[in-house]
Amino acid sequence: MQPKFLGSEELLKRKEMIGFFCSRHTLPASVMPTLDWAYEVRKREDTVVISGFQSDMEREVLDILLGGKCGIVIVLNRSIYKVVPEAYASAFADGRLLFISLLGDGITRPSRQNAERRNRYIAECATSLVFSSVTPESSLYPLMAEYELRKEVRRK
Questions:
Q1: In what order do the strands lie in the sheet with 152-155?
Q2: Cα three-residue angle 1-7-55, rounded to 5 degrees
Q3: Which among 130, 153, 114 has a CA at the least distance from the CA of 41?
């Protein structure tokens, strides 16, 4: 199935696209470095952050990025939106936002299998990766270990 897009597909052509992942269980020591990183990256007009923005910390980073100038690509773990949610309207209108869905129409409930597929898609699209709060027990750990050999990976 081909990905479905809603928003500015031009964002996929930017030179710097950072894939961002954070475990569902946030480590206290990761909070400030992750937030500091988000506040720095939001200033860069030439940079795009691509993520599922599903965990609590990922959503917090998304809120920070929405107030900035960088591009944002949200890869959904559901079907594409029919209407852009109000929280994203300003960034969407400014051409700073793209939604991508790898799933067919009518899928509204996230699944672990679809999340793994989404995360691999994000890792492949990104030029570098940032992982926050990932421990060996995290479902993101194997992805991080795999891509450390192939791309620039930073841990927060």
A1: 4-7, 97-101, 71-76, 47-51, 16-22, 128-132, 152-155
A2: 75
A3: 130
pTM over 0.85: yes
CATH of the domain at 106: 3.40.50.450
Percent above pLDDT 70 for the chain:
96
Tens digits of residue pLDDT in 54-95: 999 999 999 999 999 999 999 998 889 999 999 999 999 999
- For the chain, the domain total comes to 1
Q: Name residue, tokens 């793994």.
A: 116
Task: Print the domain residue range for 105.
Answer: 4-155
